[in-house]
Amino acid sequence: MVTADYYGKIQMLSLEIEGYVLSDGTACLSELGAAKLLGFGTRSVLDRIASNLWPKELGPCIGNGFELPQTMVKIIAPCPHNGLEIKIYTAQTINTIARAYATAYLQGSLRKNQLHIGLQCATLRNALADAALEQVIYDACQYKGQETLPQKIERYWKDHLFQELQAVLWQSIQNLYPDREDGKYRWIMANTYRWLYRLILGEEEYKAVNDAYQKAKKQKGGSGVCFHQFIEDAQKREDCKKLLKVFVAVIEKHANGKLPEEVRQMVEQFYELYQVA
Fold this sequence. Notes:
12% strand; single chain; Mlu1-box Binding Protein, DNA-binding Domain; alpha+beta
């Protein structure tokens, strides 16, 4: 029987994920870790996929004959779960699922309640590719950077997440206001972001973070600086991520003919649910 011989906690994408290396050298995540990384709200999604109950939107995006193995392994690694048997998912399997959701997301074929998963998978795969290429170059040049690999992945993931959100928001605003000038679109986008951050941070903390952001932006000439990088509280950064994911789904669904105030009210309702959860 294959066993989980090595154990570690991975801090990445504002998440703590449990990883294992099996006795045959296979890298994998726990079932809960895989669900978190892919943006699934529950592990039952993986069970449905394992039962070949793929969402129909993913049909054209998954390879023929793909099966999701649910492998049970016994943990012999020194860790809190030593002696238990758990379900694991290999890195290759997780990437296959992420590729299917990312492809469907980019093709615009996901349902509204799947958008946050598609966004997570698309930005995650882009971030992994960016960080891996950077690390290969560093290794070839024998250069040791200041960031760990998970830190690099998180930095690139946040950049891709905000770029994708901007693209969605931009298109939504154009649908809402087809006669507005280009400058007015940018003003609405800037206002929307400020409102989202104020909702999470509060006015006083928003001002402090914004001051730090504007100072860094001026020093670096406006490139490579993102507002969320200056939010020190990890939980609030996580709240930002959750709210922005929901906002993408809401704005996509209600971009045609809905007023921004109505959209904002819906986002506030979703945010209150997240706060309670």
